[in-house]
Design brief:
- It comes from Candidatus Nitrosopumilus salarius BD31.
- It is a single chain.
- By secondary structure, the protein is α+β, with helices and mostly antiparallel strands.
- It has one domain (2-56).
- It has 2 helices and 2 strands; from the N terminus they run E-E-H-H.
- The protein has helices spanning 21-36, 42-56; strands at 2-5, 16-19.
- Strands 1-2 form a two-stranded antiparallel sheet.
- Helix 1 packs across helix 2.
- The longest helix is centred in the middle third of the chain and has 16 residues, at 21-36.
- Bound molecules: zinc ion.
């Protein structure tokens, strides 16, 4: 399970979404579009999330 908090992206906003990668990407993309009027590409969010995941889980 992964999570994106809106404030970790630099917004003064308490939105958070958790779940599997596909859900979080879509939820956050939808939130950015509706609440902040920012049209991120899904690919950009996917890259951000994958980078975040790999930073959180140390390679064994
Ligand atoms: Zn937000």
């Amino acid at each position: 399970m992964v999570a994106i908090r809106c404030d970790e992206r630099g917004f003064d906003c308490d939105y958070v979404t958790t779940g599997n990668v596909e859900k979080v990407i879509f939820d956050y993309w939808d939130h950015m579009s509706k609440e902040h009027g920012i049209d991120y590409s899904l690919g950009t969010l996917e890259k951000y999330l994958k980078k975040k995941i790999s930073a959180q889980i140390p390679a064994s």
